[in-house]
Amino acid sequence: MTDRRSTILRTLGLTALTLGGLAVANTLAARAAERRYPPEGRFLIVDGVRLHYMEAGEGPPVVLVHGNVSALGDSLASGLFQRLAQSHRVIAFDRPGMGHSDRPHDRDWTPEDQADLLAQAFAALNIEKAVVVGHSYATLVALALALDHPRTVKGLVLLAGYYFPTKRVDAVLVSPLATPVLGNLLRHTLSPPVSKAMMPGLLKTLFSPRPVPDHLTESFPAALTTRPGQLRANAQDGITMVPAAERLQHRYAEVAVPVAIFAGHHDRVVEQEEQSGRLHHVLPDSTLHWVPESGHMVHYADPELVVRRIDELSAEKAARQIAAHR
């Protein structure tokens, strides 16, 4: 009995040492990632939340909002930010908990919560009647902005979005990371190295059927997305996505601004025929653009088309142009 107890104690001790070592290593790795990809923009305190954003250019405002497991660097890597800055005032935000923005523990951070926060950021930065561009998860944030804060939005550009509730295995898999005790343990020990190991496969899935761009390793801050804090934000977004789609789907017909919907037939993350095709029929003033041979990252596949539609939505006669396209 004594030998068995000793064995158990030794095993527990080794486990504790291993987990402690992983926690230290992950903390050091997170700091290294933040040094490698330091903030390139400015910070704004809104409702007690420290938001990181980048701004450039002059002209009609365009706001870029990235998806899950991502950061505002996505708009830089795709070239959207640079192209738009030539003729627009373009602002890209790190959503709460992503990139270099904070995510306090005092709320659920549903798409509606994030839209409320962005609306306050718009007011602080004097952003009025913007074309809001959302990718993937952020399409729900963009729609919530148009529904709950209609005066802030002139038009929407929705890229590879998720709009109607379905069963999502990925939401079940990430849910433990969002729990208070178990989630804290996993996020600081096992999850960062596992997430890093899975990143190449995830990128292939996101970009399929096209190859992952060669420049992405240097231009996109992937290392920031596997830090313990962002793993929590990623998990929370994963588990709030389906309930948010359930709530918002009943309000889509109320969207009062023109909407450009982009989708790829080969999207391996979201079934776009079911999602974007259905949304196009629900929204009274929308256009649907299928990007050939494209998956989830449609803005990398054809950034020029995305920019042209943004230009049209920014124009004074945007509604007439949308009707002509339809």
TrEMBL record:
The keyword Hydrolase applies. Residues 60-161 form the AB hydrolase-1 domain. InterPro entries: AB_hydrolase_1, AB_hydrolase_fold, Epox_hydrolase-like. Keywords: Hydrolase. One of its GO terms (molecular function) is hydrolase activity. The keyword Kinase does not apply. This is Alpha/beta hydrolase.
